[in-house]
Write a structure and sequence with these properties.
There is one protein chain. The chain has 11 helices and 13 strands. By secondary structure, it is α+β, with helices and mostly antiparallel strands. The strands form 3 sheets. Strands 4, 5, 6, 7, 8 and 9 form a 6-stranded antiparallel sheet that branches. A hairpin with a 4-residue loop joins strand 11 (about 270) and strand 12 (about 275-285).
């Protein structure tokens, strides 16, 4: 048997074990020999056993189950099945990835598992009300911005928006924006590039899926402003938490504790008021976002203090009438 045949045999064994097997789907010595025979290679049990042992010695995670006959399967994989399912869920529900790109990514993620496990990954993930971007070039855009950040170069691009007929148009009649990109930031399932805007002379952000025809230009970026912190910027711009921090007392129904923890963590004080309510003492930045968040609980959460916050909330309620 020549050297090329031996190499081919080893590759075919690896291919079969990686694609077809896992702990719950093992193949026997006879099944391996039949597979190789179908591929035009005849091999005896002793040679096959030696091939598999060689692969094991080369650190391929092939597990041998001693039985009559012996069975084999591919052991540890880079990702566990639950991890792959979470990745698929994230891609499927992401709004900044188009439907076509989502399907392509899901197929690639599923291929990281064995064939039998891939079938369990081929499930339909439904993100209720989740609109997907129609920008099919988002991969190219992200790649261009990433390269510019790594090269510390400026980018130029146009920006899109929609008219009342839901038609995508270029903002400001096709104005070209020049930006020194600092970081790509994900917020509320959208991707943003944060950087120094040449025109505004300040740090601004642009949604990646609305960027049109970005290109790297041969100009060094404007250095990040002193004390610039992307998390602080995000809190002020994306979450509108800009302002003075204030200690607020909230009267809440007991079942709302999970929402407080989701939003503010566990580092705040609580005190029982009745069997069904408690008072939370939380440092917050008063903003329209905060008042809107309280409003969504339809009276199950009330602001008690300070009085200025109570008054502001009542004013906002009056505007809804």
């Amino acid at each position: 048997m020549n050297e090329n045949t031996s190499k081919k045999r080893l590759l075919l064994i690896l291919q079969l074990l990686y694609k077809k097997t896992d702990e719950d789907h093992q193949v026997s010595t006879a099944e391996l020999m039949d597979y190789l025979k179908q591929e035009g290679i005849n091999v005896n049990r002793k040679t096959l056993a030696g091939d598999i042992q060689l692969l094991i010695d080369m650190d391929y995670d092939i597990v041998k189950v001693k039985s009559s006959p012996n069975k084999y399967f591919w052991g540890d994989r880079e990702f566990e099945l639950p991890e792959l399912k979470m990745l698929i869920d994230a891609v499927s529900s992401s709004r900044f990835i188009s439907s076509k790109r989502s399907n392509e990514l899901i197929s690639k993620i599923a291929s990281l598992a064995g064939e039998a496990q891939s079938e369990s990954l081929n499930r339909h993930i439904i993100a209720t009300g989740r609109a997907k971007t129609d920008n099919k070039e988002v991969y190219y855009i992200v790649d261009t911005i990433s390269n510019a950040i790594n090269q510390k170069k400026k980018i130029q691009f146009q920006y899109t928006e929609y008219n009342i007929n839901k038609e995508k148009i270029l903002r400001n009649n096709g104005e070209v924006y020049t930006l020194s990109p600092y970081v790509l930031y994900c917020n509320e399932d959208y991707y943003y590039v944060v950087g120094f805007n040449d025109k505004r002379k300040t740090v601004t952000s642009f949604r990646v899926d609305r960027i049109h025809s970005p290109e790297i230009i041969d100009e060094p970026i404007v250095p990040e402003p002193e004390n610039f912190n992307v998390d602080d910027y995000a809190n002020k711009i994306f979450k509108m938490f800009d302002g003075e921090e204030t200690l607020v007392l909230l009267e809440c129904k007991n079942e709302l504790i999970k929402y407080l923890v989701d939003r503010y963590g566990t580092d705040f004080k609580t005190e029982k008021k009745t069997d069904t309510t408690f008072i939370a003492s939380i440092p917050v930045t008063l903003s329209p976002t905060f008042y809107s968040w309280v409003f969504q609980f339809a009276g199950a959460m009330r602001i008690l203090h300070p009085q200025s916050a109570v008054k502001k909330f009542e004013e906002m309620l009056d505007n809804f009438r």
